[in-house]
Amino acid sequence: MALGPVDVYIIGFPGNQFTGRIAPAVLDLVDNGTIRIIDILLVIKDEVGNVTSVEMADLTEAAGPSFMSIEIAQPGALGQDDAEEISEDLDNNSSALLIAFENLWAAKLTDALAAADAYVIDHVRIPAAIAESVITA
Question: From CA 88, how far away is CA 50, in angstroms rounded?
Fold first, then answer.
């Protein structure tokens, strides 16, 4: 099967309030075969602007026990360069969780496109908030 497209979500946490509460949703997507986690990186900026990055392998149980059970396909795929780039956009006393994942659901479509000698010309993702405002208008 072909590789599905890979997305990187950058999720912000003002006040460094990272609790691991999103882990159950991520685990559900992994368990039902929708996505495969490539890598996870946490970037933390303290109140004076010092930046620390923590790889998934270095996270502790404080991140939440369910978060610790997420299997990483390619540890280190997200690295120091990614942390530095993201840290420039972070406010002091905030953090960002970078999650790179393969869209397994799209791998079948990728195979079908290849079999049809077709290819994707472009891909546009519309943020959920914008889609919701259009649908509910």
Answer: 11
Q: Are 9 and 35 in contact (CB under 8 A)?
A: no
DSSP secondary structure, 8-57, as one string: EEEEEEETT---STTHHHHHHHHHTTSEEEEEEEEEEE-TTS-EEEEEGG
Q: Which residues are 99's β-sheet partners?
A: 9, 40
pTM: predicted TM-score of the whole model, two decimal places: 0.81
Q: Is there a contact between 95 and 13 (Cβ–Cβ < 8 Å)?
A: yes
pLDDT in tens, 28-60: 999 999 999 999 999 999 999 999 998 876 765
Instruction: Look at residue 103 and give its three-state secondary structure.
Output: strand
Distances from the Cα of 87 to the Cα of 48, 57, 119, 128, 130, angstroms: 13, 20, 35, 24, 26
